[in-house]
Amino acid sequence: MKIQENAGSCPRQEAPNPCMLCGEVGRLLHRCIREESEKAGLTSSYRPFLRQLAQEDGLTQLELAQITHFAPPTVSVALQKMQQDGLIVRTPDPEDLRQIRVHITPKGLELHRLVHQAIVKTEECALAGLSQEEQDTLKLLLTRMRENLLSERSGEASHETD
Question: Measured between alpha carbons, how far apart are the two ends of the chain, in Å?
Fold first, then answer.
């Protein structure tokens, strides 16, 4: 890649590398979806939990944390607020009373539906002009990058406990 010197002492790259582009696209997608979610009345921190519960209702708090890659305390705080807002209810697991199951309410489902429509609109905008083959390749490459990063994180976690 051609590097160009700027007025300071740090070299400036003419074109961003793939990771920089992923970060920028991710931030733009997040901003667009956050803005659309807020128009629908949804705090952006609730979105991943509502999405997951709409797909698989009755998960435990720990399962939600593992699936969404959020720390359990973060999930706990979000769920408390979501329950106060009437988006979820928490009930004891009838088979294991130590476990609490999280269920999405009709209000939560309706909000999820509205936000999902906004997300689809944003995705259509982002993927405009890409063929299905290009979209499939992009998905494959991004999935591989995510797996690399997740395996690196789990490798670091196992080294920390050694």
Answer: 40
